[in-house]
Structure formats: structure tokens, C-alpha cells
Amino acid sequence: MSLHPSLQSYADAWTHSVEAISELVTPLVEGEWNRATPCPGWSVRDVVSHVIGADCEMLGDPRPIHTLPRDLYHVQTESQRYQEVQVDVRRHHTAPEMVSELEYTIIRRSRQLRNESRDPGTMVRGPRAVEETLEFAMRRRAFDIWVHEQDLRWALGRPGNLDSPGAYVTRDLLLEALPKIVAKDAGAPANSAVVFDVHGPVEFLRTVRVDADGRGTIDGAPSLGPAATLALDWETYVRLSCGRVTPDAVTDRIKSEGDTALATAILAALRITP
After folding, report:
1. CATH number of 5-161
2. 70 with 84: CB under 8 angstroms?
3. Fewest CB atoms within 10 A around its CB: which of 46, 138, 148, 251?
């Protein structure tokens, strides 16, 4: 048996992004590993450490025994604390050590994926220390590693792959979150609609409709007279959704029409990452 067809796109997306990350960081000199990334509190080294650590956990490796320092201002939740262990334990690793461990982890994880024969619904322990289906874990992993590839690209001034396989996994995951963001988090009124018009390497036009009971749904049909319309480019949409920028920092890249207060509330609620 081989990888289930429903998992193949996630494996392909992971492979594309992790190989891009390896290509980005292998030639870096020591000082470049300390560059800040848009991921709050994390340097290039920290992002790569997280990538290594998450895939080691997907491989079933034991977690490091490590005590975090108390002055990590960006660590504020238990989830963040859990993830930070894999990062902090590598903060003093040299560039060659980082590249070597990354390459070894890629080899091991690629072999695991080639030999993966479990059903997508199999419960596994994911990289966030929770039991989840294999399909969800692989999907979330493809999303996570693509976003971190973009973190590294932004930090190193090497833009690219905004329309790679991981970008489309990310698009679908972000779209699934929109009904709740609009209807519940932003409090859009009943019987209203909000249109998202995203352009760039990945384009889509979606309408979130809120029914009389305040429940949100999403579809690709345009809305006549929406309560609000938000138009922005794909990169900005991703950075907002992943907490890499605040709405105030990118107002020049967002065009909104209709209910200004609702548009502001939606943008404030757009972030889905911890």
C-alpha cells in the first residue's frame, strides 16, 4: 500500500516547501540566521528550528527535555510554550548544525511519507500535542510549513512560491475559517453578506452570507448589495490571517466598501494562528 490519494496533495505541498526552505537557508552565513522574521519573536534560526521540531514530532521522536527561560515575551499561551521548547533548545546551534539536522529530518520524513499506508482517519498525535486525524495533521503541517517558508522569504528578501502547492492548501484552510470570523467573531448582522475579493498569485472571490439565525456560510457567487466588501492582495491576506501584520500596518493595501465598522471588525478578527 502507499499514501492515500486524499493525503497526496498535502505530502506534495510539504515536500515543495521544505525543499524550498532547505535551498533558502543552506547558503546562509552565521549572522543571517539571526535575522528577525515576521513570525513574532522568531529569527530565521528559530523558524527553521520549529520546522525541524514539528517534523520530528510527526516522526514520533521524543520531545526534548528542556526548561524555557522566563523572559520570552512572545510566549504567552500553553500552546506557544509547547512549541517554543523545540525552538529554544536549538537557539545556540551553529549554522552547519542547523543545516545538517534539517537535511537529516527531511530525509527521514520523506521516507516516512513514502511508506505511509494508514487511513486518513487514523488518529495520531500531531505536532501540537493533541490527538487528531492523520489527514488533519498532514493538512495543518502543509499549511504551517508554507507559511514559515514565507516567513523566511520575507526575512531574507527572497520572495517567491506565493502560488505553490502549499499556497492552495493555505487558501482552502483560510476560507473555511471565514464564516465564523464574519458571523461570530466580527458580529456581522443577520441576513447580511460580506464579499472578499483577493487578487494576486492566488485569486478568489468569495461571499460569506449570514442567515437569520446568525450562522455563516461561504460560496463563490457574487452578492448584490453586500454589507461590506474587502479587496486586498493575496500576500496581505495571508499575512493578516497568520498574524504577521496588523490591519493598521497595511491599510494602503486594503480597499473596503460598505459598513466601515464591520470591515474593521472583520480585519481585526482575521487572524487564525495562535
Report:
1. 1.20.120.450
2. no
3. 251
